[in-house]
Amino acid sequence: MFRKLFSRLRPRLAEPHDPHGLYFYLTCDRCGAPVMIRADKRYDLQRDGEHGGFLLRKEVMDGRCFTPFFITVRLDGRYRIVEQTGDGGSFISWEAYKALTGLEDEAHNTKEV
Ligand SMILES: [Zn+2]
């Protein structure tokens, strides 16, 4: 009963979000594993004095080959992404992340049963 209602309310898997979180999705360049990153606006961002926005530098590690890599994201004053670079990883969309992890398939299967 609950499951039925749940799947009807959420036909597609929604991207995670919270008031302080910034979410990024990547694949490891070495092994191709998908990784989800959550950065906290309060703790993880540095003021970018030069451009008037914020700068995020974060170490990322996937769960497959465990090779750490770095991402650098430049944001404007409203937390909109201006530039993003991955040194050892590549940025992908939420849709691509879902497809790679099989999250969407699981949700779909649950609905069919
Ligand atoms: Zn990897």
Walk me through what this model shows.
The chain is of the alpha+beta class. It has a domain of 59 residues. The protein contains three helices and seven strands. The chain has a four-stranded antiparallel beta sheet with strand order 3-4-5-6, with no helix packed on it. It has a three-stranded antiparallel beta sheet with strand order 2-1-7, with helices on one face.
Q: What's the layout of helices and strands?
A:
Elements: H1 2-9, E1 21-28, E2 34-40, E3 45-48, E4 53-60, E5 69-75, E6 81-87, E7 89-92, H2 94-101, H3 103-112
Bound molecules: zinc ion (ZN).
Zinc ion binds next to loops.
Uncertain runs are none
Oligomer: single chain
Sketch the topology as an H/E string, one letter per element. HEEEEEEEHH
How many helices in DSSP terms? 3
Q: What share of residues are in beta strands?
A: 35-45%
Order of strands, main sheet, comes to 3-4-5-6
Name the hetero compounds present.
Answer: zinc ion
Average pLDDT, to the nearest integer? 87
Per DSSP E runs of 2 or more residues, the count of β-strands stands at 7
Query: Which structural class do you get from the secondary structure elements?
Result: alpha+beta
Label the overall shape.
globular
| First-residue to last-residue Cα separation | 12 Å
**Percent range for helical residues?**
10-25%
Biggest sheet architecture: 4 strands, antiparallel
What's the gyration radius in Å?
A: 17 Å
